[in-house]
Structure formats: structure tokens, C-alpha cells
Design brief:
This protein has helices at about 25-35, 50-65, 80-85, 90-105, 120-130, 160-170, 190-205, 210-230, 250-265, 275-280, and strands spanning about 15-20, 40-45, 70-75, 110-115, 145, 150-155, 240-245, 290-295, 300-305, 305-310, 320. It is an alpha/beta fold. The strands form two sheets. It has a seven-stranded mixed beta sheet with strand order 5-6-4-1-2-3-11, sandwiched between helices. The chain has a four-stranded antiparallel beta sheet with strand order 7-10-9-8, covered by helices on one side.
């Protein structure tokens, strides 16, 4: 069963809750209510699943009304934005959802966002990141404060999906089921969840999710400490551009670490080893190439002993209902 509320690491301040209507976010809403955490529920309609998505939004509205939780819904044309930005639907939905949640937090004047990711999500994320190759099997952090001053909470990160399901059934709370989550061909993460993780568990003769999830958490802690160390170095000029003379004489491994840190800090999504190495190639003295295209409209440029990014912005398509 789900751990007792007093055993979970819960925010001690008002939060914006990312509420999809699915099992996990509904459980987190009920847990925050038990804990007495003030909250503002925010539902993001991605414009992907038609009538089912409309029904998700209505479920969330009624749920919040029943528990007297302030509720707001935003609609985004994710398919169009994905085309404009050259990203996958899955990635664009995640980026836009995070952006909207942060904007809503600023709107209601709170500094925390609560998300309902759990241990199974953590294991999927670790394998997904491992296969991209840019940062290894790094997972999500249970508490993370971003550069804009917003703290992102994931109180359920050590809970299993089955525990959450059993707890909701015990208290008689319904939720919305996204049927695309059961389709192996719908998204990369679906394949990891439905095919790869079960195959790993079968090959090793045990449930690998707790081990992978814990390893991802440790990797995230190590990466956070490493990024903190990089932040203390004079890597950037006052305009936020990477100062290339500082990298002179350093190893290629150091270059890759700094470039990955810089691109991540600038918000470039879907980073892979290929992207990091492509930007690192710009650092080689005397090469004719001075720019490199990155995901989501970002372009890396080298000029005047500096590396910097520009972005061709797609028009924002957020409509508050």
C-alpha cells in the first residue's frame, strides 16, 4: 500500500498541482488534501486526444469542485507546436506542460509545483536518458529548485504504480485512464514501460524497477553536485555566453561536460550525445563551421571567442479557459 502521508516528503507551502486526471495526479491531489497543503490545480489540455481529452478536463474540473480546490485549465495545440519546433509530440507536450505550470505558479503567486511521477516513471526516465546517451541514466529529483526560483516537488517518486492504484481503490477514488498508455507503438516511453522493463525483469529473474529507480536517483544527485561545481567556475561572460578561452587546454571530456551543462541550462530539450559532440566540434580552432542546429529551434553559434544560442521561437498557442 501507499506509504503513510507523514512518511512522504511533502511541500510545506502552497503549490500548483499538475492535474491530468490520471491515477497518479489524482492520488497526489488526495494526499495533499490529507496533508492540508494549500493547492491550485492546473490542467493542461494538449489538443491531442479529442473527446477523451475533453472528458479528462471535465473530470478534473468536477473533482476540484467537489473538494473545493481552485482549478484552471489551459489548452495548447501541441501537434502544431511540435511541427513548428521539430520535436516529438511526447517531448513537446512535456515542455509545454512544464512551461504552463511555471506560468500558472507565477500567476497565483506561489513558488512550488507538485508533480505525480512515481518509481515506475523514474525507471522509464533513467532508461530513456541512458539510450539518448547525453547524460547517462539520470533520473528525476524528488525536490528541485530551478533558476527561476520555482521548486518542483515529486512526493511519490519512491512509490510504485501498483501501490498508488491499490490506495485509490481502497479509498474509492476514481480516475481517468489514458488508453494510449497501453499502446506499445504510441510513444517511446510506452515501449520502455511495456516491453523493455518487463524483458529486463524476466532476464534477471527479479523486478528491476526499484534498482533502476534508485540508481537513477543516485545519478541525479551526483549530476546535481557536478553541475553545482561547474556553476562556480567562470564559464560564462556577463551576457550568459560560454567563454571559450577558459576551455583552452582542457580535455575533450571536460569540453563535453561543460557543453552539456550549458545547453541544458539554456533549456535545449532532447539532448543526445550527437548534439553535444556537434556543438563541441565548434570549439575546435580554425574550423570553418560556426553554427550547429539543435532541437526545438535552438542554434548554437561561435563568434568572438564565445559560444551562444539563439532560438527561432514558434508562436505561443496557450489559451486559458
Amino acid at each position: 500500500m501507499l506509504p503513510r502521508v507523514d512518511q512522504l516528503e511533502l511541500p510545506g507551502e502552497a503549490v500548483v498541482l499538475g492535474l491530468s486526471g490520471g491515477r497518479d495526479s489524482v492520488a497526489l491531489l488526495r494526499i495533499l488534501l490529507l496533508h492540508g497543503t494549500p493547492m491550485f490545480a492546473c490542467h493542461v489540455h494538449h489538443g491531442i486526444r479529442g473527446r477523451a481529452a475533453d472528458e479528462d478536463a471535465e473530470f478534473c474540473r468536477v473533482l476540484c469542485e467537489n473538494f473545493s480546490v481552485p482549478y484552471e485549465e489551459y489548452r495548447i495545440d501541441v501537434p502544431q507546436l511540435a511541427r513548428d519546433n521539430g520535436t516529438s509530440l511526447e517531448t513537446e507536450a512535456r515542455l509545454q506542460r512544464r512551461r504552463v505550470l511555471a506560468e500558472h505558479a507565477r500567476k497565483v503567486k506561489v513558488c512550488a509545483v507538485a508533480l505525480a511521477h512515481h518509481a515506475d516513471d523514474q525507471a522509464e526516465t533513467a532508461l530513456f536518458n541512458l539510450c539518448r546517451g547525453a547524460a547517462g541514466p539520470r533520473g528525476m529529483q524528488s525536490v528541485y529548485r530551478d533558476s527561476d526560483g520555482i521548486t518542483w516537488w515529486r512526493p511519490l517518486l519512491r512509490c510504485r504504480r501498483a501501490e498508488i492504484t491499490a490506495w485509490l481503490q481502497k479509498i474509492g477514488q476514481s480516475w481517468r485512464e489514458d488508453m494510449t498508455n497501453a499502446e506499445p507503438d504510441a510513444a517511446t516511453r510506452n515501449k520502455i514501460r511495456l516491453q523493455i522493463l518487463p524483458a529486463l525483469s524476466e532476464a534477471l529473474g527479479r523486478d528491476v524497477i526499484p534498482t533502476v529507480a534508485r540508481s537513477a536517483e543516485v545519478q541525479s544527485e551526483v549530476a546535481e553536485a557536478f553541475e553545482e561545481a561547474l556553476s562556480a567556475l567562470p564559464l560564462m561572460d556577463p551576457q550568459g555566453r560560454l567563454y571559450l578561452p577558459f576551455l583552452a587546454g582542457k580535455t575533450e571530456a571536460f569540453h563535453r561536460a561543460v557543453v552539456h551543462f550549458y545547453l541544458k541550462r539554456c533549456g535545449v530539450p532532447e539532448l543526445s550525445e550527437r548534439h553535444v559532440r556537434g556543438v563541441c566540434a565548434l570549439l575546435v580552432p580554425g574550423i570553418p563551421q560556426h553554427s550547429y542546429n539543435l532541437p526545438s529551434g535552438f542554434i548554437a553559434h561561435r563568434a568572438h571567442k564565445r559560444l551562444f544560442l539563439e532560438r527561432v521561437e514558434a508562436p505561443s498557442d496557450v489559451l486559458s479557459l
